[in-house]
Amino acid sequence: MSATMDTESTYSGYSHYSGHSKKAHRQGRDRHKSPRSKDGSRSEKSVTIQTPPAEPLLGNDASRTEEGQDDNWGETTTAITGTSEHSISQEDIARISKDLEDSVGLDCKRYLGLTVAAVLGLLVFLTPVAFILLPQILWRDALEPCGTVCEGLFISVAFKLLILLIGTWALFFRQPKADIPRVFVFRALLLVLIFLFVFSYWLFYGVRILDSKDTNYQGIVQYAVSLVDALLFIHYLAIVLLELRQLQPMFAVKVVRSTDGESRYYSLGHLSIQRAALVVLENYYKDFTVYNPALLTASKSRAAKHMAGLKVYNVDGPGNNASGQSRAMIAAAARRRDSSHNELYYEEADHERRVKKRRARLVVAVEEAFTHIKRLQAEEQQKAPGEMMDPREAAQAIFPSMARALQKYLRTTRQQQYHSMESILQHLSFCITNNMTPKAFLERYLSPGPTLQYDRDRWFSKQWTLVSEEAVTSGLQDGIVFVLKCLDFSLVVNVKKIPFIKLSEEFIDPKSHKFVLRLQSETSV
């Protein structure tokens, strides 16, 4: 039995409608009583991908009460209090605690991997130096003189180690972009290879040089040089496996957002499923428009209104078995009363008309505001040529003239939750500083942009979950489908292999383009 905890919340700027608190409380109670779905029929493997932290989107409650708001919401500010429809049950608390435990486990795994890699890298760079210095420390007097040859080898080892250090820093020491759920196979394979390689060299060094106290110092130095050369070749192998192998496109993936059906196509090389998921998420944040749940409320309210208008009667009585005839009668009545397509047509036409009207008002208001700021700048330069108006003060001066038109346009297009007054002022001051036109200023608001365009506290996706029937460390194959889930929507990824293209050549004889014009003698030319 789940215990719900209802919190009191205050909403300002919205018109009062009756029955809000009771309906919200009833919806929250029904939602927690509904049975949870079980995925026992499919053997799916679910793992979690951590992305840069972000807070849930602000203004969700505003989008839910969009239908109950009028156009003059900025003029009436009625504050009401009521019971929020957000409630937390015992099962939700257990799930949150489980997610926290999983995140702690991921952090421990990440730091453990970094520690192992750092210790192994330090061992790699100190091993050649130790090979050269140990004979000088333990049996220096018994060593044969080496002279110029050893000095040249010392310089070679120093420069090779420097090159190896720079290459290792460029390839491995990078800021991690995400926490992947499983180990990167090729990187783990390289670490194991390096460990076995260095261990073999130390084993041979301890048996053949340290135990016998070899006096041929030139041979010992050349042994250290061979170790550095082998490490350089392993570094080249790491570049091929980690960077070059995935460059050639081999698969075409289609990414579809589950809520609104927006899709994109991408080309990927030989990658594992978890690394392909990372590439998809990186492209999602810059290619897909920001997820706006307010755009989905209109269709839901229309469907609920249509279902509320239908009345079902049991014409056969409780004991009659003629259920097929009754269902046919109900379906016929529903078809006769179905006018959803007309409602949809007129709603979309009215919405487009309102958007165009609000857009025209906004464009005119912004152009007038920018004209005003240019006039103020010209006046300031005439009064004091050495003084310039601060961009922040200029933005605050012209913002009230365009605030009403911008506010109404954002409400009409349901973008108000993505743009706060502070972010608008910052963008306006940025445009004034860089001498940008009104059209450049409006580009952010006239059409929804990608997710990266907005602040991180406006993002929905805080944590992604990768669901795949195949192991996430396995490579991409033709026909594989995996899903990336977050709190409010999911991305369905379908993998298709790029087909083999057979290109043939056809030779055209240059003489085939030549022709001879023969004129008869009786023609008049």
TrEMBL record:
<protein>
    <submittedName>
        <fullName>VANG1 protein</fullName>
    </submittedName>
</protein>
<feature type="compositionally biased region" description="Polar residues">
    <location>
        <begin position="74"/>
        <end position="86"/>
    </location>
</feature>
<feature type="compositionally biased region" description="Basic and acidic residues">
    <location>
        <begin position="36"/>
        <end position="45"/>
    </location>
</feature>
<feature type="compositionally biased region" description="Basic residues">
    <location>
        <begin position="19"/>
        <end position="35"/>
    </location>
</feature>
<feature type="region of interest" description="Disordered">
    <location>
        <begin position="1"/>
        <end position="86"/>
    </location>
</feature>
<feature type="transmembrane region" description="Helical">
    <location>
        <begin position="153"/>
        <end position="172"/>
    </location>
</feature>
<feature type="transmembrane region" description="Helical">
    <location>
        <begin position="184"/>
        <end position="204"/>
    </location>
</feature>
<feature type="transmembrane region" description="Helical">
    <location>
        <begin position="224"/>
        <end position="244"/>
    </location>
</feature>
<comment type="similarity">
    <text>Belongs to the Vang family.</text>
</comment>
<keyword id="KW-1133">Transmembrane helix</keyword>
<keyword id="KW-0472">Membrane</keyword>
<feature type="transmembrane region" description="Helical">
    <location>
        <begin position="111"/>
        <end position="133"/>
    </location>
</feature>
<dbReference type="GO" id="GO:0005886">
    <property type="term" value="C:plasma membrane"/>
</dbReference>
<dbReference type="InterPro" id="IPR009539">
    <property type="entry name" value="VANGL"/>
</dbReference>
<keyword id="KW-0812">Transmembrane</keyword>
<feature type="compositionally biased region" description="Polar residues">
    <location>
        <begin position="1"/>
        <end position="10"/>
    </location>
</feature>
<dbReference type="Pfam" id="PF06638">
    <property type="entry name" value="Strabismus"/>
</dbReference>
<keyword id="KW-1003">Cell membrane</keyword>
